[in-house]
Input
Amino acid sequence: MHVSLDSALGRQRRLNSVGESVLQIAPNALTAYSLRSLTGGDPKVVRVRRDTDNAEQDFTASGVSSGALTSFTNADYAKYTSDFSSGDDSWGSFDDVTETGNIDGIGGLDNNLRLAIGTATSDHRAFRSSILPVGQKINFSARVFVPSTNSDVDGILIRDANNTVIVATTAPTQDEWVTVTANDVTVANAQLRVNLQKGAASNFTGNGSDVVYLREVTVTQVTSDGFVETWYDQSGNSNDVVQATAGSQPKIVSAGSLVTGGLRFDDAQKLETASTASFGDGTTLSTFITNSSDGDEASYLFRFSSDYIIFNNSAGLRRVHAGISANAGTASGSEELWSTISTINSSGGTTNFFADGVLKSSADANIGTKTVSNRVLNIGGSSSGTHWNGTVNEVIFYATDQTSNRVALESNIMTNYGIS
Amino acid sequence: MLYLIYASKEAAIERADEEGKELGFDYWIEDNGIGTRWLTYPNETADHMWALDVTDYDLDESEEASTVDHYTPLPDPDDD
Output
């Protein structure tokens, strides 16, 4: 008599067919969030707010992978454009330099900034605060005029206040406006500083008479951070998770690049459904969450309020909780797939917790006596604490027992994210 | 961190709305009820007032004089 392997394994699916999507393997998810397509099509997956001007846009899975998302967040943004027509435009100075705006008739142009050196033996610097985007890349441009009547000052050096060089020491041709530029400089401080130099030296004794003029100083931000306002549900149930408060939105683009690991939750971010869900006695909940935990504090990853929580504790232990916690080993800190298949029950629920396809809890571990009653789905933590610290690539949730599809789903997910 | 303390959630949200409009968040531009609405959202205090994190807000002089640097949050009933 022939007995198939599938029969021998209780008809458990072992591998997904080539090209099968997650929701083709197991179609009836209650919610499904990812930055890739889980449907096989090209669904809308995320709504992103860029940090420069707070503009928002929806993106499909192909829009994320093609670079359209980062092109959106990294659109050129005019961070600063000088205007010396009515004064010094809030420029200041150190070291005995005097700054004066609205200087006319220099090289045939009006409305310039004059930087006049004093007599100190020191650096000779002018500055403009709050015009550089810390941690981001900028393009910089300014026009500089060095008069031939100067006896000492013949050049400039432009940096941020952390001494990140923006325009290296340069001695412009005298008696004409010279444009100095820099591209793709990552700045570390918000304050721009201009050193007056003598023979490429910044520290010297000023002669009390030399001057340099500036105009058309522009800072263009060319990278930005991006934050998730909505993580769209691909299940077809419209259970999108949303965050309307900017300060609580997880990061998806950091300094111009997609965050490694998907969405970054950093101790104050969460996403929630608008609608609530209830699951009574005997309901089996199956979750497949691809994440990386910092493991540095108790962090709620996926929960229905306090009724049902998947998290790690302050020791990094993976846990499922429905009144009491079942442990499932220690999170590695690397990308992991957490698969949980839990049956909740007011007389005592159980869970099987798999990490990267391997059972890590005791089989049918006790998770307590809670069921889920009118709770929103929360990804990332509560309002006052126990926020998730780490990244989340994917959250797929079924209010049904997916034991028969677990291996095929895990194979799909682990292959996609390179988890072994 | 700087906080303004309000007697009601509605008053705190009104201030949060004002800042959200100033910052040009999408909720206020598209007028379709979706998109980012607030920079920060108020949290209830232990004495049932409402604390709004205004650290990055553009405050007027009266508000600046009224800020506090800490508050005691109401324990989250959802917390484990």
Notes: Chain B touches chain A through 22 residues (CB under 8 Å).
